[in-house]
Amino acid sequence: MRVRGLRKAYGDVTAVDGLDLDIWHGEVFALLGPNGAGKTTTVEILEGYRQRDSGEVTVLGTDPGHGGREWRSRIGIVLQSNTDADELSVREMVGYFAAYYPGHADPDEVIESVGLTDKAGARLRQLSGGQRRRVDVTLGIVGNPDC
Questions:
Q1: How far is CA 39 from CA 8, 74, 146, in A?
Q2: What do you get for the CA distance between the two ends of the chain, in Å?
Q3: Would you kindly state where each structural domain of the chain is located, as residue ranges?
Q4: Contact call for residues 81 and 135 (beta carbons, < 8 A)
Q5: Burial 112-139 (b: 16+ CB within 10 A, else e)
Q6: Could you list the mean pLDDT of each consecutive 10-residue stretch along the chain, which spans 147 residues?
Q7: CATH 3.40.50.300 is held by the domain 2-67
């Protein structure tokens, strides 16, 4: 992934101002900063869910602003929160997300890979914070993403 001169403003408030970064395939990368630093805006631009004002962005060889369904199926996304899904079981939630990806992994195998087999039938609201984070990881990898 390559980002050059990324800029995004909301009216008079500049959320991202000239960001440059390179993230290589297989690299683990984190954006850290205080509230309002532009982290979510940056990630949403990289995912193709928010338009940038200027700059160049390439993810998996594609400009996210023009990435179609095939490109989107190659990325794994974990949302900030899934509070509206508290009544779903772990298995139901992972199966729901898997259905968005044409070449998804077997939901039960992914649940097992994060150590939640014994919680597969539990409602999300019943899970501990750590177990919820493992569900987040499961949702990010069930589609067999390239990144």
A1: 11, 21, 21
A2: 9
A3: 2-67, 83-141
A4: no
A5: eebebeebeeeebeebeeebbebbbebb
A6: 97 96 89 92 95 97 93 83 81 94 94 97 95 93 88
A7: yes
